[in-house]
What we know:
By secondary structure, the chain is α/β, with parallel strands linked by helices. The chain has 3 domains: 3-117; 138-261, no CATH class; 269-527, Ribonuclease Z/Hydroxyacylglutathione hydrolase-like (Metallo-beta-lactamase, Chain A, 4-Layer Sandwich). Helices cover 43% and strands 17% of the residues. It has a 7-stranded mixed sheet with strand order 14-13-11-9-8-7-22. α2 (19-34) packs across α6 (83-96) and α10 (195-203) runs antiparallel to α11 (213-222). The chain is rod-shaped.
Amino acid sequence: MDIFGRIFSSFQRFSGEGTYLILFLCALFFVYLHEKRKSVKLTFVEYSIGIGLLMIFPLTALVIMDYLIGEEVYWRMFWLLPIPFVMAYAAVRLLEREKNGKKVFLAFFLCAVVMLSGKLVYANGEIERSSNLEKIPSESIEVCNALSRDAIQNGLKKKRVVVPSELLPYVRQYDATIEMPYGRNAIKQEKLSENCDNIYGIMCKKKAEDMDLLHLTGLLKTEDCNYLVMKLDVAVNAGTELGQYGYIQVAATEHYVLYRCDDTSQHCYKITQHPNEKNSMFYTIKCDMGGLIVVDGGWADNAEETREVIRENGNKVDAWFITHPHKDHAGAFCEIYKEPQGMEIDMVYAVNMADETLCEENAPWDTFETLEAFKALTIPQLQYVHKGDKLSVDGLDIDILNAYDDYVDEISNDLLNDGSMMFKVTGSTQSMLFCGDVGVSMSDYLLSEYGNTLKSNYLQMGHHGNGGLKDDFYRTVAPSVAFFDAPESLMNPVIPDKYTTPENRKLMEKLGADIRYFAMGENSVVLK
């Protein structure tokens, strides 16, 4: 295409149908004829002619198109023509020449000419009406709208949410009725809540496995946040666990998942059975606000593994329960307490077991080195518990149902086992019964003492599920989950009838309980 054709093509792209260009030329001619001030003529008339000639002169057009800005952009150079200014100025000067009556009519006429000469800006499809005046990313709007819809559908006035960091500014901007727990008191120069940093820190983790979801949901509930938004790639691996803690999925967008909690007053506790290659007992109870309770701990040679579990949970124990001083229960504790290595232990609860001599007379087949080791420790934070004691730790109610005392002497010929601490841990709606190594001879007594109050959602089987308590006792407890602190060799013995664990397993399965034991790895339940 020759240069004249290229200029004409670009000019057509600028002028369209040419109606406004005709009005512009008429206005320019009017100013030239009737304007007396040279400065105005210079600004409007001479400048317009100069720019016009520059744009259509072949040599300058060629340089601009081929060496400066390119042909695709060249047509926009015509925007340098002061078309709206010249037309407006000419119209004002024309109106000045008329009297009041005609002036009004002429003004309407000129406006009508301008309107009818053009097209609605949305007509060509290149421009759309703005539906997002705040310039907020569309998915942020989707998330906010999904939250508001869910709140309306469920009759919720409160909409308090925690979202990933990239959504934070947009949620505030788009919908001020959606609250978030972040902020500062500008007058006092302090944070509104110390939980904010912890929440933000957890939410900034890239993977679900790096996020402490139990603690996150506990912090959210403390801040009364009934909604949570997670990135989709995190939610894929976190959704089931969040549901256990009370946050259920209610909506999703392309990259985010929305969860709702219907009761932010209900805190959760994760109870975990830690496995071993042989029979032992080690549980942790982790509070969603960060507290940790330990039950027993296993053998002395498990001490390092026990330390590591506690270290991973903050290296602080709010309460350590020792059910009884047998080596498969209290061995690790004795080793750890001799060398805490920076571990903090607030309280130790144990039974005030009979002395070694009486225990040996009662059960000469037993071993007592761990009893000696435990009694040799100086433990300032030790509190001996007794049947009927009631404790409160990390928001849990703990009832002591059995602990060595004179009544155990009268009933049992196995003091170390039957004198174990049996205790019931109760949350807001659920409970778990820990039986330690309490055996069959205590069953009738405990049933008569407590009856249906033994009923619990979860159960740690007495004496690892081997021997232990009577069938009637377990039927009364009627748990949904039964924990056997036993390896495969005890659950499925090679020699038939050597252990009673298979019989007790069948009983619990018949009662509808889900069976958990060491071969299944780390077994956890959520207590609410």
